[in-house]
Specification:
This is TetR/AcrR family transcriptional regulator. The protein is an all-alpha fold.
Length: 204
Amino acid sequence: MRWAPDARGRLERAAFELFAEQGFAATTVPQITARAGLTTRTFFRHFGDKREVVFAGSEIPETAARLIVEAPADLEPMQVVRRVLHQVAAARFDGNHEQTAAWRRIIEGNDELRDRDARKRSDLVRAAQAAFVERGETPLQATVVAELGVLVFQVALEQWAAGAGERSLAETIDEVSTLVRERATPAPGVHTSATRPVSDHPEC
């Protein structure tokens, strides 16, 4: 049997329409395939279940890990993070603001999808952590950088999707990255509780 042209795209569009019309929980795989004019067998060639229509499967974690490993060796870890996030934004999100915003609304409206979204973020952290270890970072360093990178990406994506789309996702990523860096670095002369010097004459 020959595969239908653009079967994956047709299934994604049909699923999106049905999720928007009647909700994720009320939508079945047979309904999606009927709307797309395809068979359930074709659906399961492309997706493990209807939740996977909403997400990119392992594509983003695998892509991010590869880009981290391939980044120039002279870049600092957070420079790698910024470079990779820009690349992911350009490849997957540029020109897709309205669609991304609609998918985010669908995810936020369903507990099951929010749980899956959280697991996907964990998958991304693990993939990034392993890639940074491959670049020579210690496991602890790699974990911290991976967690920060995914935090920046998630916050930036949610802010960008919630906005009107005047700015690019890359610009939002830069804004969030700058905010994280500023909050993590005390201003000159300002001591945190961990670094504040102890007085020789403590008050009684």
